[in-house]
Structure formats: C-alpha cells, structure tokens
Design a protein that fits this description.
There is one protein chain. The protein has 98 residues and is mainly alpha-helical. Helix content is 69%, strand content 0%. It is built from six helices and no strands. The longest helix has 29 residues, at 2-30. The mean pLDDT is 90.
Length: 98
C-alpha cells in the first residue's frame, strides 16, 4: 500500500516539476516583449489612438466597449481588458502584452 502512495507522490512531484519548467521557459522566451514598441499595424486603431481605451474604466468607456464597432469589430471583453491594461500600465506597450 505504501508503494502506491509513494508512486502517486512521485508522479505529482514530476508533474509539478514539468509545469514549473514550462512556466520558467515561457518567462525566459517572452520576457523581451516587455520593451517592444507599439506596432503600426493596428495598435493605433485599437489602443494608442483610442480615447476610450486610454481613459481606462469610466462609465462612458464601458458604454463604448459594449456599443462600438470601431475598427469594424465588436469585442467588448477585449476592450475591457485593454482599458484595464491602460489603468494599470498607462501607455507602456509591454504592460499590454503581459
């Protein structure tokens, strides 16, 4: 009976170790994006020139997030996320990427 318990413990420990290794690898690989600049592809339409996003979570911005089709898209949850990023990180692009 104790042998099965030891094996289950070893399996859990192995799974946690693999998870920690993958997490650490992801941090190492993606850490450089903290310093990347905004792209000129669509960041200006959706974030850097969007007054409601830059204003953060205001009543007017929340209304806009659920009613706007700016950029030919309707994605209120994504816009709410961008507003929160703006509240937390200002206009630093790295904050929006993490």
């Amino acid at each position: 009976m104790a042998v099965n318990g030891d094996r289950a413990h070893d399996d859990r420990l192995r799974h946690w170790a693999w998870g920690a290794a993958v997490f650490a690898l992801a941090l190492v690989v993606f850490a450089p994006i903290r310093n990347h600049a905004w792209l000129n592809y669509d960041d200006n339409v959706y974030i850097t020139q969007s007054a409601p996003v830059l204003a953060g979570w205001t009543l007017e911005s929340l209304r806009w997030a659920f009613s706007s089709f700016d950029g030919a898209n309707w994605f209120p949850l994504t816009r709410l996320s961008w507003m929160l990023d703006s509240e937390l990180h200002g206009t630093r692009s790295g904050g929006f990427l993490w």
